[in-house]
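Hi support team,

I'm filing this because I wasn't sure whether my run with xanthosine-5'-monophosphate finished correctly. The job status page said complete, but I'd like someone to confirm that the output block is well-formed before I use it downstream. Pasting the exact inputs I used:
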Amino acid sequence: MVSLTSTPQERVPTAQPEQAVVVETVAILDCGAQYTKVIDRRIRQNNVNTLLVAVDTPAAELKSKVQAIILSGGPNSVYDDHSPQCDPAIFELGIPILGICYGMQLMAQTLGGTVAKGSTQEYGETTITIDPDVSLFADLDAVQSVLMSHGDKVTQMPEGFRAAGSSPAHEGHEILAAMADDERGFVAVQFHPEVELTQHGDAMLANFLTHTCGFTGNFQLDHRLDDLIDDLRAKVGDRNVFVLVSGGVDSTVTAALLLKALGPEKVFAVHIDSGLMRHNESDGVCEALKALGLTHLRRINASDDFFNGTTTLEDGTVIGPLCKTTNPEHKRRIIGDVFYHLITQAVNDLGIDIDDAFIAQGTLRPDLIESGNRDVSATAHIIKTHHNDVPLIQAHREKGLILEPNRDWHKDEVRQVGRLLGLPADLVDRQPFPGPGLGIRVLCATQPYMQGDEAELQQHINAVLPNTLQGITFPVQSVGVQGDGRSYKRLVALVGEETPETLQALARRIPNEIHELNRVCWRLAARNENAPVPNIISTITPTLLTPQSAAMLRSVDDAVTQAFRQAGLLGSISQLLAVLLPVAPHGGEATHSVVIRGVITSDYMTARPARLDSDVPVTLLKQLGQDLVATHPWLDWVLWDLTGKPPATVEWE
Ligand code: XMP
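And here is everything the job wrote out:
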């Protein structure tokens, strides 16, 4: 069970206890949905605190901590034997409750209504009719476009509820899209208000918080920041803090916070050049850190330590060296552990006992949620192992010696904190770059990945494509997030000319219909544009994470970044990246392909691909593709990633 004490319920002004302010807090009871962390983000965006807890958290435990509850969605059927159930006593607490999708069905069933399998399943954007008199829908039009994703439905509402929305009739039966019991402050929706595909979902959640819960939004970032600085001072006392600064926004803001709280004497910044950084990046990072006022700054050039790094798993298995490792989770694990060992070494070099010093890192709330960290996540769904949350770090955390001042924040909040601290815009608005750096963008494989009947898969793809396009699958896997977990699947590259709308629509449709695939790319350029597209690609160029493969990607990455910068497009894309693929469809001298990926997102938990032409001109991309091929003799195809998150992730590993 999750500890409910991690976020202080009261900000207690020590001098005047009578002014203690109760921080408005919602418990999100996690029924296992992939969107729980998005609910978390949306609520916090309204300056309301959240506790992400297990669905069966006893009402008694919630009673004094929260003033409202949200029951999240989830993949199960409420009537199944082992489906997640809540403590029925939560409905007796006298506080507002919002049920979402599975949460609506759970509310209905627990309060005496009925839920059954629908004759039709609804997945995707649906137009529904709502009742604007219900407070959840205040000020909204009666017709709304929402994201539905369910097979079951509420067939009979519990006593006290009224219908608050319906979706169009299927086989003569309308589906109940929303229900409300105004008296008790219970409201439930069959769709997902938390995702961007629900057009006015933000307004609905804000309505719940203001109208149903009566919240004012007193979980304000500037207050939280003051509290945090006080907490840091109290916690650190006379000890020293070592902060690992990659140069990304998260770790830079962490360093700036520590400087503000503790002053320059106690803060030792360590920048490790892992050999997996971008072109000239470490130089720029060290200059920026000096400009922040950090006087103890140490740069460690450690590429050899990383490429040759190994580590030991809990069961005693030794993994590595990194330059021979293909498993993405193992790569992350080795990189995280090498970072830890290097910082430990740096601390020892100063004659300080590691057990007497704090290590600070820039970990965000979604990082902890996605790596299944028990402090913030009720259900341990590991989407990816974050390199900041490897067991060595966890062990140091158990000793109370890890400082993660951003652990309560999402990405956009960290940027806001950076601004409040007066950091320059070019630091605060910098695109994220993952700690493992280029290490998770060189797709490593020593043999082709093919599964099942290739001819059948190809037929399936052909059946979906217009005759203007050809589609060819690459024999490699990349990571995605589908349903409630991680997926490793293949990609299809589309070749030919089509409108941006058609290409983008295909990218949404294909992973839904063809379950072997989670990525759809479009070919921008090829070394030999006239060569016929092969019927099948069954070989790869064995590729591992070495100084050479990292240098190949670094060169392409730099060219891509420069092209976007010159076109003035870097600021409008949330994250731009290039990925090295061990596949050369036409072969010859060429050994690899490259994918360019640009995504737009504010929270990085879901993301849409930058749109062709409206966000990034196709002419620019094609020219860039041709230039890359012309300047990199090993490069065969250049692809553009058309896939959103979900079903893919931002990174490829
Ligand atoms: P994904 O690929 O999970 O990425 O959609 C979401 C955001 O997280 C970054 N990312 C990482 N950052 N260590 C990091 O510091 C990691 O292991 C890691 N993996 C992904 C990614 O670049 C994106 O901004």
